Amino acid sequence: MKYLDLAPIRRVRGTVRLPGSKSISNRILLLAALADGETLIRDLLESEDTGVMLGALRALGVSCKVEGDGAMRVRGAGGAFPVKKAELFLGNAGTALRPLAAVLALCGGEYRLSGVARMHERPIGDLVDALGSLGADIRYPGKAGYPPLAIRPGAIRAGGTVGVRGDVSSQFLTGLLVALPLTGEKTVVTVEGGLISRPYVEITLNTLRRFGVEVERQDWSKFTIPAAARYTSPGEIHVEGDASSASYFLAAGAISGLKGGGPVRVEGVGRASIQGDVRFAETLERMGAKIVMGDNWIEATAGAEAAKRGTLKALDADFNHIPDAAMTAAVTALFADGASTLRNIGSWRVKETDRIAAMAAELGKLGATVEEGKDSLRIAPPARLRPATIDTYDDHRMAMCFSLAALGGVPVRINDPGCVAKTFPEYFDVLAEIAER
């Protein structure tokens, strides 16, 4: 489908069961593949990104089979993949390519990792430099510092200290934390230049713990992998709902509540979630939403004052900790009572697209006045939204967050709606189920 026309949405109300978290799914798949024993994974996300991870693991000789009840059974390779030579295509999945690059660099095999054209524009040099300091042999068949990667067996130095930059992508640190336990030696990872997207590193540490490896963290700048660490299967593990995906429905509930709609409840994340993006609920509260939360659910509508005014509150906030959900905040700002500023979102520049530039362009189509900074975005909403055709830049989150503009009483055309298959293939169907047009 080249485009999807969304008619104006009068209001939304209902309950949404979230798909599994992409970040958790791909971490669990990789750790299950490296562990001793078999792991039964329940509620694994079915999407393009998890599909390329599964394809890569199977190409590396790991048995990954779907059970009759839909769960995934992974037979761990015990720390060493059986296949020592492979070419792996990883699409635009940073959660697959970057950790796999780190693991394969320490596995003593010959591998080539590649992806779509945009993946080849997303930097990986800081991770490769860190692995190179350990003796890994990684070369760039294309542009230096970017995929594709050619990995050969290297003389790996086990143990000691390794440094990695943390101010471009937290996935570089995640890759090292996942790979280094394979050496069996105590290793200290130091983070240089500050660490962005810390909640995603917290997901990594939590998942490592569930597979038997306890990493000691010191002030987000020093991480110690213990000696004799080894991944062991927890037997059965559950993937919680995707908190980034929850943001669209929670924002929809808050926006719809301005005109008598809502509430919207999401199930699969809540107080007990290990994902940082559940804090998007706090952003909505600052904007005047009413949030109610349980251990495994969150419900959102407009607060009484916001409903009385008919607008949410503008905000000025740092979104370094929740960069994905920050995109939802940018579109939600169209329904605020003044200009909002999103700060410290420089990581958007190296995501599926340059999200700062893309968001500025598409928000402008809806009538907003947008000021684009190096790592910030200022959004002044129009008096009335304009109908618009939204380009999505092959970026799933662009498609999903801009669907919220239909709550502004205007038709919205979403170009290339199929890009949501990266993380949430059924998104538009689920939105339609809670929408009154």
Question: Your description of this structure?
Answer:
It is a single chain. With 437 residues, the protein is of the alpha/beta class. The protein has 2 domains: 3-20 and 241-436, UDP-n-acetylglucosamine1-carboxyvinyl-transferase, Chain; 22-223, Enolpyruvate transferase domain (UDP-n-acetylglucosamine1-carboxyvinyl-transferase, Chain, Alpha-beta prism), CATH 3.65.10.10. 30% of the residues lie in helices and 23% in strands. The chain contains 13 helices and 25 strands. The strands form 7 sheets. The protein has a 4-stranded mixed beta sheet with strand order 3-16-18-17. Strand 21 and strand 22 form a beta hairpin. The longest helix is centred in the middle third of the chain and has 14 residues, at 243-256. The mean pLDDT is 97.
SSE blueprint and pairings:
Elements: E1 3-6, E2 11-12, E3 14-17, H1 22-34, E4 38-42, H2 48-59, E5 63-66, E6 72-75, E7 85-89, H3 94-105, E8 110-114, H4 125-132, E9 137-139, E10 149-152, E11 160-165, H5 170-179, E12 187-192, H6 198-210, E13 216-218, E14 222-225, E15 236-238, H7 243-256, E16 264-267, H8 280-286, E17 289-293, E18 297-302, H9 304-309, E19 316-318, H10 323-332, E20 340-343, H11 355-365, E21 369-372, E22 377-380, E23 388-390, H12 396-402, E24 412-415, H13 427-434, E25 435-436
Parallel strand pairs: 3-16, 4-15, 7-8, 11-12, 19-20, 23-24
Antiparallel strand pairs: 1-24, 2-25, 4-6, 5-6, 8-10, 9-10, 12-14, 13-14, 16-18, 17-18, 20-22, 21-22
